[in-house]
Prior knowledge:
Layout: E1 19-27, E2 31-36, E3 47-50, E4 64-65, E5 68-74, E6 77-82, E7 85-92, E8 100-105, E9 123-125, E10 132-135
Parallel strand pairs: 3-9
Antiparallel strand pairs: 1-2, 1-8, 2-3, 4-5, 5-6, 6-7, 7-10, 8-9
Amino acid sequence: MKxxxxxxxRDIRHEYALIVQLVIVSVEDDHLVCHSWDGETxxxxxxxVAKPYLLRRTPFDxxxxxxxxxxxxxxxxxxxxxxxxxxxxxxxxxxxxDDVIYAARFTDGGTDVxxxxxxRVSMIDMNVDGRAWAKQ
Length: 136
């Protein structure tokens, strides 16, 4: 079965866009606060974008995954411990205000991320920059 084609649309209103270009305003534990971006000018309305699952804090902080325990010191830094080995890890490249990202709108299933007011976050960072945890 063929996969449906993905259509890239730049739409600063975010009404019908499948994929949108945004600029980061701030970085939270599980999501980014962004503004629309047309390549030259940023909007002024906050748009919440979920981080990719493995880059989020909430699912892993104080927990264990695949025999490794994680304790977070910030939204972009954590300590990973396996057996007697401990290392500090950071997201590389780090999320920085004014970085441009591409986000997709989730329509089915959602992102499982809510903001501080318990509002569902319906967009997700496509991570085209290849961010991942790495040893500091």
